[in-house]
Design goal:
two-stranded antiparallel sheet; 188 residues; mainly alpha; Arp2/3 complex 21 kDa subunit ARPC3
Length: 188
Amino acid sequence: MKLKTRDMILIALFTALTAIGGFLKIPTPVVPFTLQVFFCVYAGIFLGSRKGMLSQLLYVLIGLGGVPVFTEGGGFAYIFKPTFGYILGFILCAYITGKVTESFKELKFTNIFIASFVGLASVYVIGVPYLYLMINRVAETPITFSAAIKMGLVPFLVHDLIKCIIVTVTAAKILPVLGRLGYITKKA
C-alpha cells in the first residue's frame, strides 16, 4: 500500500489524537476510562481499515518505544501491564471498524452505529483475555475468566454504548462534509 502525503498526515493526526485521548481520563479501579476509543473508532470510520489500523499501530509502537503516550506512561515493559491488551485492541478496533464501514454501500446512521459497536467490541476481544492472563500469570493472582469479564468489561458496557452513540451522531454529521471535500467516496 503506497501512502500519499495526505494519508501520512491523517494517520499521524489520529495517532496524536489517540495519545491525547489517553490523557483525558476518568480514573477507575482496573481499566482507566479514556477518550482513546473514540479516536480508534473514528480512525476506522474516517481513514478506512488499513490507514486506521496504521494510525493505531503507530500509536502502540511509539508508546512501546518509550514515549509516554499510554495512560500510565510508556516503554516496552508496558506489555506486562494487565491493561496492555486493550491498547493492542485499538489496532483491531480501527481495522474492524474500517472493514465494517467499507462493507456498507451507504454510511447511514444505523450502519455507522453497527461499525462503531463491532469495532469497540473488538477491543474487549483482546483486552479481557489479556487482562486475565496477565493477572494470573504475571501478577500471580488467581482469578477466573468470569472475574476478568466483571473487572474489564461489565463496568464499561453502559459507557461504551454511550460512546458508540456519540461516535455515530458526530460521524453522521462529519461524513457528508468529508464526502463533499472528496475525502470519502461513499454516500453518507
